[in-house]
UniProtKB/TrEMBL annotation:
One biological process term in Gene Ontology: citrulline biosynthetic process
Residue intervals of the Aspartate/ornithine carbamoyltransferase carbamoyl-P binding domain: 7-153
SUPFAM superfamilies xref list: Aspartate/ornithine carbamoyltransferase
EC number: 2.1.3.3
Aspartate/ornithine carbamoyltransferase Asp/Orn-binding domain span: 160-311
Name of this protein: ornithine carbamoyltransferase
Keyword vocabulary terms for this entry: Amino-acid biosynthesis, Arginine biosynthesis, Transferase
Assigned protein family: Belongs to the aspartate/ornithine carbamoyltransferase superfamily. OTCase family.
Gene name of the encoded protein: arg3
Domain of life: Eukaryota
Species of the source: Schizosaccharomyces japonicus (strain yFS275 / FY16936)
């Protein structure tokens, strides 16, 4: 028997530009079908996980990722098993290797929200079934998919757009930059001087930028970064796991809050995005709840893009095109 090596989705790095575009397109098809059929009270013909289980290995909190994965699994006919950090033996009585072997032997796919990239990579390495990263310290590919769908719905295209990110350099930004680089969406990141992007991540972004010759810039001044931006994005300054550094981080990022004044320096039609959960220090209420904000559409799009991702990796086993 030839052992089949599953195709995992740990970062936008793992898929090609064409696959990325197809996943966004498929998400839009699914969303349209659901909205139309919901109004007409007709079921949508999505399938592939009947009689199968998706394991959700979540060692951190989640609202959007949890709901989108659980509901996406149901849409595809399957059942999800939510395995929180206090529910299973991992980390207390059992190592990742044993956990990976056991969980994958009983399920058709794993969505994992763990702490380090090393944890999700170890899980994937020893899993006999596909693993999708539901956020680790380095990547958040499902978020990037939802953000791209939101951008496509808003601007109708990925061409001639500029994203400006203001704030921390983190998991969400890493996959967003890889995605922008692949699709030719220009990006400027405003971050404090003492916060740097990891060299290995920068190398991934540069590699991804080659095909479309995408311009990705790093600046200190938010006012500079948001010039000519179509989309201004930020995320929390204190990611899960960094709670002990909260005080120091709030000081470090002071001056990087997205305010109405910052938004006014972006393009007239410029929009605001945030993966949520949000804290007021990184963006004012005025912007977050204001007319330029796409945040709730972006959150809802987690569901449609997650259906497309589960279908691609768990049903179609990584055959996306
Ligand atoms: N954006 C996001 O991943 O949200 P949750 O942490 O609530 O899943
Ligand atoms: N950067 C945040 C994203 C949460 C969805 C975190 O890692 O906590």
């Amino acid at each position: 028997v030839v052992k089949q090596i599953p195709r995992h989705f740990l970062s936008i790095r793992d898929i090609t530009r064409e696959e990325l575009l197809r996943l966004v397109e498929r998400s839009a098809e699914i969303k349209t079908a659901y909205k139309a059929n919901y109004a007409a009270r007709k079921p949508v013909a999505l399938s592939g996980l009947e009689g199968q289980n998706v394991a959700m290995l979540f060692s951190k909190r989640s609202t959007r990722t949890r709901i989108s994965v659980e509901s996406a699994t149901t849409c595809l006919g399957g059942n999800s098993l939510f395995l929180g950090k206090d529910d299973i033996q991992l980390g207390v009585n059992e190592c990742m290797y044993d956990t990976a072997r056991v969980i994958s032997s009983m399920t058709s796919g794993i969505v994992a929200r763990v702490n380090s990239y090393n944890d999700v990579a170890t899980l994937a390495k020893h899993s006999s079934t596909p693993v999708i990263n539901g956020l680790c310290d380095t990547f958040h590919p499902l978020q990037a998919l939802a953000d791209l769908l939101t951008i496509k719905e808003t601007f109708g295209t990925f061409d001639n757009l500029k994203v400006a990110w203001v704030g921390d350099v983190n998991n969400v930004l890493h996959d967003m930059l890889i995605a922008c680089a692949k699709l030719g969406i220009g990006a400027a990141v405003a971050k404090p001087k003492d916060v740097s992007i990891r060299t290995d991540i920068l190398a991934l972004i540069k590699e991804a930028a080659k095909e479309k010759n995408t311009k990705i810039e790093f600046k200190d001044d938010p006012k500079e970064a948001v010039k000519n931006a179509d989309i201004v994005v930020t995320d929390t300054w204190v990611s899960m796991g960094q709670e002990a550094e909260k005080e120091q981080r709030l000081k470090q990022f002071a001056g990087y809050q997205v305010t109405e004044q910052i938004m006014e320096l972006a393009n007239k039609s410029g929009k605001f995005m945030h993966c949520m959960p949000r804290h007021p220090e990184e963006v004012t209420d005025e912007v977050f709840y204001g007319p330029r904000s796409l945040v709730f559409q972006e959150a809802e799009n987690r569901k449609w893009t997650t259906i497309a991702a589960l279908e691609a990796f768990f049903v179609n086993r990584g055959n996306i095109l």
